[in-house]
Amino acid sequence: xxxxxxxxxxxxxxxxxxxxxxxxxxxxxxxxxxxxxxxxxxxxxxxxxxxxxxxxxxxxxxxxxxxxxxxxxxxxxxxxxxxxxxxxxxxx
Amino acid sequence: xxxxxxxxxxxxxxxxxxxxxxxxxxxxxxxxxxxxxxxxxxxxxxxxxxxxxxxxxxxxxxxxxxxxxxxxxxxxxxxxxxxxxxxxxxxxxxxxxxxxxxxxxxxxxxxxxxxxxxxxxxxxxxxxxxxxxxxxx
Lengths: 92, 137
Prior knowledge:
The structure holds two protein chains of two kinds.
Chain A (H helix, E strand, L loop, with lengths): L1 H21 L3 H26 L4 H25 L12
Chain B lengths: L5 H28 L3 H27 L3 H31 L13 H4 L2 H13 L8
Helix pairs in contact in B: 1-2, 2-3
């Protein structure tokens, strides 16, 4: 059953990568990157159950936190063009 | 999970994992097929809530009542809390950058059914010309 889950998650990951390549706007690509991150967490958990080593779940928790922080960094760069922007004055 | 028949646990985890795989792949197909950025955010929310939830529930039934179930529950809560936050931030950022959502009236074929106003504006002129007799609609 974990093999079925792993194949399904891999199919969904490849579809998200296709959207990352296709997407006309840059937000399509950011959304696809977020989906790839979630799929990677699930694939880590399923892989941990497949090989009988559930320690991969800790890596999954860490990557979930990194994913959200990374998405905020990317969105801030899209909006302000600068990762060091203080966000005080309204920018174009 | 605590004191269930092992066949029931196995059957439940099979059902949950298969359902979770179905919803996850459905969300990914929606990511490909939807016509607009905001509609695609809607499609990924399906895979991030239902898909992830059912997959993690199926894996929790397989893990039993151990520490691994607690780790899976932590992953589930993290994804549940951060999913809507990231979607909202991305939608707000996209709208601020100037991405216009695709409305139904913009798509070809739908505007004829939803916008009868230009046809109705021509009617009063015809009605005044014919002397007030209501023409057939």
